[in-house]
Structure formats: structure tokens, C-alpha cells
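Hi support team,

I've been running sequence recovery on a batch of backbones for a student project. Most finish fine, but this one hangs at about 90% for roughly twenty minutes before it completes. I'm not sure whether the input is malformed or the queue is just slow. I've pasted the C-alpha cells below so you can try to reproduce it. Let me know if you need the job ID as well.

Thanks,
M.K.
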């Protein structure tokens, strides 16, 4: 599926903001994130930690997906789909600010 400009769905979407109320630390290549609204400690594996790092720098989710595709030698569409899924899960958990958060 593509957006009206022909790019893969989500490719032109700007990354959501990090929730300023969370606490996060990288330990041994994994990111530990505490969401204070529910006192849950979330653990991101190495690839998700790389997405976490890229979300702070990238201007679009497509940029994040393209970087992952190059670094992990996967198809760009597959990398982008995984990024979009991870971002949605992080928004649902309150780690990233989403349209229903804030």
C-alpha cells in the first residue's frame, strides 16, 4: 500500500515525539524504559534500541526504515513495516507520544 505520493505507507510520516515523562537507559545494548503512568519497565532488544536511537535523529519513518535496511541487510519495505509496527506498539505503551497521548 502507498501514500498519495507513491511512497510506501508510513515512509513520509514524521517520527512521533518521545514521551518526556519516561525514564530510559541503555544497558548492555538494550534499552530499559520505565513508563510512570503504569510503572511498567519495558525492554527493547538490540534492533529496537537502534530504532529508538534513529527516531531521535530521523525526519521520517522511511529514513529509519532505510537505515535499518542497509544496516541489517533486509528489504526496505520489510524494514519500514517493522518500524511502523514498533512505533505503534511504543505509542500504545506510552513510550512515544501519539495522536491519543500527550
Amino acid at each position: 500500500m502507498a501514500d498519495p505520493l507513491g511512497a510506501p505507507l508510513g515512509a513520509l510520516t514524521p517520527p512521533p515525539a518521545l514521551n518526556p515523562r519516561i525514564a530510559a537507559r541503555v544497558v548492555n545494548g538494550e534499552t530499559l524504559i520505565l513508563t510512570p503512568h503504569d510503572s511498567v519497565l519495558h525492554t527493547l532488544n538490540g534492533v529496537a534500541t537502534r530504532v529508538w536511537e534513529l527516531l531521535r535523529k530521523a525526519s521520517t519513518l522511511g529514513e529509519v526504515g532505510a537505515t535499518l535496511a542497509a544496516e541489517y541487510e533486509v528489504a526496505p519495505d520489510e524494514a519500514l513495516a517493522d518500524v511502523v509496527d514498533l512505533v505503534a506498539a511504543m505509542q500504545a505503551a506510552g513510550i512515544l507520544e501519539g495522536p491519543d497521548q500527550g
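--
Follow-up from support: It reproduced on our side and the slowdown came from queue contention, not your input. Residues 76-93 form the longest helix (18 residues). No action needed from you.
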